[in-house]
Prior knowledge:
This protein is α+β, with helices and mostly antiparallel strands.
Amino acid sequence: MGRLSRLPLSPIHPITDSQTWDSTLASLPNAHLLQAWQWGEFKSRYGWSARRLLWENADQPVAAAQILKRTVGPFSILYIPKGPCLDWSNTELATAVLADLESLARRERAIFIKIDPEIKLNTQDPRLKTQDPPRFFPSASQVQFKNTVWLDLTRPEDDILASFKQKTRYNIRLAERKGVAVKTPPPDDAPLDLLYRLYAETSVRDGFVIRHKNYYRDAWGGFIQSGHAQPFIAEVDGQAVAAIIAFHFARRALYMYGMSSGQHREKMPNHLLQWAAIQWAKAQGCAIYDFWGAPDVFDESDSMFGVWKFKEGFSGDVIRTPGALDYAPSPLLYRLYTIALLRLLNAMRRRGKQQTKAFIGD
């Protein structure tokens, strides 16, 4: 189990359940699902351990970081996905937190510590609104998307629908007319095998690499059972043709996984799926629907441009961030690790593609 701590790293009390961490995290700016207790517990089953740290000022929480750790021989790597969570406009606080994380990295003999904070960039002047993090530098290895799209859910549902581009509204209505039905299976009856098969077909068709089935059964199934995720399945004449899985935490919904068979695409099932998920997110009390990913460069040179054109139709706001930032106590060790990691990842991607092709060929 993790501990809730105040830096310097002296534990104040053990955490016996997730509620203290999640409720504290949710009270802070930029709280994110990947910083939630359940995400840390999930990753701890796949080679990581989770440590949860809290910074306080006058007994009030002001910053939090769930730090994932993986050992590499006598060393470690540390990663804070979508964190730390704090008010990044408070330069003094940000500087103090980052200095503490640097100290932690040195104590843990870390090759590097990677942070992935949601610091909104000024689109007119692409620099951080706060001071540059001390000794943190842009990472060559981005784990999450740098940019994303947020849809404001605080408006009435009719206003949200009216804000979509005309073609998107038309496609939602078209899907309904063409007989596309969206199913929302209950937690105890989520068809995880079906979802994975659709996801595997999508990965092969679109050329991206996915993990093994048990990883997603764990990720999807655990969050669905806890009430933090909901699958939406589009059917045509009783046949599943597309699906998405939406998550929610701290008044933010996230469209994290999308998948399809490629059949009946002309009936626009994906548009209706998104509208159903947006309605669900609003009913859950979410203020934001996060479309989870946008291009680094908004033109056809970016591999995500086609996905962006779909998301653009929902008229959300583009959120730009600096992406992942690394601090490396030993630049030489960091460089050697980076070279070795690139070779390993290339080999894993080749093997992953082969395994997925073999799976859908069964």
